[in-house]
Amino acid sequence: MIHWALWTLAGLLLAGVVHLGTVLMLPRTATLDSYARLAPIAPVNTVAPVPPASAENALVPFTDPAFVAAVCRYDLSAGPLKLTAPVTPAYTSVTFYNRRGVAYYALNDRAAGRRVIELDLMTEQQKAELPEEEDVTAADRLIVESPTPTGLIVLRALAPEPGMVTRAQEVLAQAKCQVQAP
């Protein structure tokens, strides 16, 4: 009896290890990640609107229908990026994701405290190469360090009423995500 209990326990332990290993490795082996799914609608280093989600065509899963979204697929190999995003009257947020889809920085219009969210996105190496400017403080220039050279920037604007969707889309259409001139 104890012999069968040990074999059952060993089998359950092995099944748990295999299950956990599979769950942890699956995102690393998936070929159709968010970055790849958004390639047809969003050129690299350009802000592009995300079409409204429906049951058939949700490019970004779990999208809230009260939000209008735009995305920038970035590649920092050509240099640091300058992101400029005007804010809407209701609410605007900017979230940064690495290539694997892990969020590493987020900012909303309340935290920015301005009518335009402006920041520089660069790798750690690019930031280290910046010249030291004594007259520029951290409050003057927001620099976000990307853990990977490629990733996604997702901009979201709240449209609290259906009639405000067009205005939110117009505001997000003014956002810019482009490589800085050297």
How would you describe this protein?
There is one protein chain. This protein is of the alpha+beta class and 182 residues long. It folds into 2 domains: 1-30; 34-179, Immunoglobulin-like. 27% of the residues lie in helices and 31% in strands. The protein contains 5 helices and 9 strands. The strands form 2 sheets. Strands 1-2-8-4-5 form a 5-stranded antiparallel β-sheet. The mean pLDDT is 84.
DSSP, total strands: 9
CATH topology of the largest domain: Immunoglobulin-like
What is the CATH first-level class name of the largest domain? Mainly Beta
Sequence stretches where pLDDT stays below 50 over 5 or more residues: none
Task: Count every helix, treating DSSP H or I runs of 4 or more residues as helices.
Answer: 5
Q: In terms of topology, how is this protein built?
A:
Blueprint: H1 2-29, H2 34-37, E1 47-49, E2 67-75, E3 81-86, E4 92-98, E5 103-108, H3 109-112, E6 116-123, H4 124-128, E7 143-146, E8 150-158, H5 165-173, E9 176-179
Parallel strand pairs: 6-7
Antiparallel strand pairs: 1-2, 2-8, 3-6, 3-9, 4-5, 4-8
Quick overview of this protein structure:
By secondary structure, this protein is of the alpha+beta class.
What are the salient characteristics of this protein?
single chain, 182 residues, alpha+beta, Immunoglobulin-like, 4-stranded mixed sheet
